[in-house]
Amino acid sequence: MHAPALIATALLAASLTACGSATSEEGTAQDGASGTQPSGTPPTPDTVPGTPSELPKPSSSPTVPPPVDADPPPGLRERPAVERAVADAAKRSNVAEPRVVVAAFTPVTWNDGSLGCPQPDESYIAMQVEGELLLLSVDDELLSYHAGDDGSFTYCAEPTDGYTVRPG
To answer: Which residue intervals make up region (Disordered) (predicted)?
Structure first.
């Protein structure tokens, strides 16, 4: 097992032990790791292009990381959308881009148009959206980036488990 997989696995274990109980919502797709929706205030994502100069530090780990038993696909880091996400993660964490590691990547089906990162007082299309989930690791921090069918990744400070993993 590679270091990114070990990091993601350790962070998954830590985040699952820190989770409280919550009720499951009907119609919520599960990925098998958790049968509950996290409670709390809805997250606020920031888009990668045109990010403000003062970026917030990552505040939490994703609630349910994707499976980490496989390496990311070859050439993933060279995709322009992934390069932008890596640059954003480096800026948020105040490190050089080579310190950002692709910890996990998986194609997903998001439960709705929020792409697993709903904002307060926002309405979203109530249909499933195919996309991708990218987890980037910087030291002991795990940053979650979500993409819809357009392939543009958006940073999500407080992701939900509102997705189903698709075969890659």
So the answer is: 19-93
**Phi-psi group of 32: left, alpha or beta (phi > 0 → left; psi -120 to 50 → alpha; rest → beta):** left
120 within domain boundaries = yes
- Taking CA atoms, 106 is separated from 14, 48, 96, in Å, by 21, 19, 25
User: Quick one: tokens of 62?
Assistant: 């994703």
**In-domain check, residue 34:** no
Q: How many CB atoms lie within 10 A of CB 55?
A: 15
Task: Find the domain containing 80 and state its range.
Answer: 3-14+42-165
What is the tally of structural domains in the chain?
1
Concatenating the DSSP letter of every residue in 137-166 gives EETTEEEEEEE-TT--EEEESS----EEEP
- Taking Cα atoms as reference points, which of 159, 99, 167, 97 lies closest to residue 134? 159
**Does pTM surpass 0.90?**
no
Q: Name the pairing type of β-strands 129-138 and 153-156.
A: unpaired
Per-residue pLDDT reduced to its tens digit, 54-93: 444 444 444 445 555 467 899 999 999 999 999 999 999 9
- Token look-up 């439960």 returns 111
Return the closest-CA partner of residue 130 out of 150, 149, 145, 144: 149
